[in-house]
Design a protein that fits this description.
Layout: H1 8-30, E1 32-38, E2 44-49, E3 51-54, E4 60-63, E5 77-79, H2 81-92, E6 97-98
Parallel strand pairs: 3-6
Antiparallel strand pairs: 1-2, 1-5, 3-4
Bound molecules: zinc ion (ZN).
């Protein structure tokens, strides 16, 4: 077997593995897809959330704003049934903080 460190395939594979390893601690802390539904075009889709918080009136603030990938609507976007379950789970596990 000829093992050489200068094989470009080996280097890129290692690089890829390193990236996955570096990415994983972040993804365990706050990486969540939340399921939304667009009332404008009835599209159901996942959005990668960076943060979810309650404001003073207990309204959920999503970051980034969940925009419909099909029609671009932002106003008509609501949580799907599955999305509501996901939010319930986050509330119960104390992962949604309130902005003061
Ligand atoms: Zn839409």
């Amino acid at each position: 077997m000829d093992i050489t460190c200068q094989n470009p395939n080996t280097i890129s594979e290692l690089d890829l593995m390193l990236r996955i390893v570096q990415k994983s601690p972040k993804s365990t802390t706050y990486n969540m897809k939340i399921n939304f539904m667009c009332e404008n075009c009835l599209n159901i889709y996942d959005v990668d959330m960076k943060s979810i918080q309650f404001d003073k009136t207990r309204e959920l603030i999503f970051t980034p704003e969940p925009e419909c990938p099909r029609c671009g609507a932002t106003e008509e976007v609501v949580l799907s049934n599955y999305g509501l379950e996901q939010i319930d789970h986050l509330i119960f596990s104390n992962q949604i903080k309130t902005i003061k």
